[in-house]
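task queued by scheduler; priority normal; single chain, no ligands, no partner chains; default sampling; output format set to structure tokens
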Amino acid sequence: MIEFHQVTAYQQQTRVLNRLSLKIESHERVAILGPNGAGKSTLLKLINRELYPVAQEGSYLKLFDSETIHLWQLRDRIGFVSHDLQENYTPYTTALEVVVSGFFGAIGSHEHLQPTNIQVDQARAMMTILGIAQDEACMFQRLSTGQKRRLLLARALVHHPEALIFDEPANGLDMGASLSMLTLLRSFCSEDRSLIITTHHVDEIIPEIDRVVLINRGQIIADGPKPDILTSENLSELYQTRLHTSEKNGWYRCWHD
């Protein structure tokens, strides 16, 4: 589904990824874990075509086995949710319009993008599934952080993509909203679709995720099955502090001395 090979990328004048290689197959459920500034969000922006890698010999980025996939095809196949999207979303868009905009890959409503009645019905159905149908007429800016995150998840899923990519799903949420969001992600996994999340918190890695990639300073430092990667030694190296991990029912927790 996704293949980075020796990819280098910059954000403004700063090199964020340095000759990074990573392959993720269809139907995998992967967590990309690393500290703030490690390069996680940049990696996702490359997948979403918000950012492009440096053109250099021997380097490529393939999405669905193509280096030149059309943007509309990409939007049909991948649903994307990020904190940046939430912060930059048109504030006076209604909740229903937010979800409907997922059919067009748009941010907000636009006169030239008119949804069909079927699309509106599908948007309402997705809002019902995610427990936000009652917010249909509310303005995006007036909703809580948890409600906004659910709306953007509905927007990402309304066209039933093959894969969901979620940048820090519990970022900015209180404990109740965080647990609710993670429960929704677990429900998504029950439908046998691909999931990629980024996070810097081990306890956001839901049991259904079976592969973990550790990233720091723009390079991958470990990659493999979750039990092999989420060890005290690996996480201590990643975060440069003495850490301990434990597991219960597929959930991991981490603490320091």
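post-processing summary
- The two ends are 40 Å apart (CA to CA).
- The first strand starts at residue 2 and ends at 11.
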